[in-house]
Amino acid sequence: MHRKRGINTVELTCDYAWHGSGTMQPDSIAEGSGLMTQFGSEQGFYGQGNYSAHQASYSHHERYVYKSSDDEGFHRDAGGQYFHLLLVRVLCGNTLKTIEVWKPPDGTGFRFGAVQDKLGKEFDSVEGGPHHPTLSGPYDVRLPGNDDSMIYVAYHPSQCLPEFIVTYTQNDVN
Fold first, then answer.
1. Is beta strand 95-97 parallel, antiparallel or unpaired with respect to 125-131?
2. For residue 1, which of 13, 78, 104, 118 sits 20 to 30 Å off, Cα-Cα?
3. pTM of the predicted model, to two decimals?
4. How far, in Å, CA of 28 to CA of 30, rounded?
5. In order along the chain (174 residues), what is the average pLDDT of each group of 10 residues?
6. Which helix (H) or strand (E) holds 154?
7. How many domains does the chain have?
8. Residue 68: which CATH number?
């Protein structure tokens, strides 16, 4: 990315975000073998990429959080008492900020389709939202939720560096 965008641009565009690994053991991702697998999904709203959230509560949602019956996270258990999230460093590069797409200053309205084919090419990442964990598309003021969060999508696996695995229980959340 340094060669593609320039070192000063890249260094200024790093952010931390939360990644819920879902059914994949967080250690697999932290060791470097898991992000490629998750990166392969094309079902995300912003296309094929690695999704992470600004707010941990978004990634804590049952759809994303990895749950286990042991604090190390070795034994995945949908009813387990331990929750595991990854804190990842996201190298954003040239970012598409969707607020500029949903509500452009020229008043033209929704124009996301016009930039979709540039994701991963002209844009290295997306800063989108805020989004709700169970809904896709732009933020709807009629359906605000406590877990709404900005989402970061990186289009190359090397743009996300897992730095910490955070393990907690439901008692820690309340």
1. parallel
2. 104
3. 0.78
4. 6
5. 63 83 87 58 73 89 91 94 94 79 57 67 82 64 67 84 91 64
6. strand 149-154
7. 1
8. 3.90.228
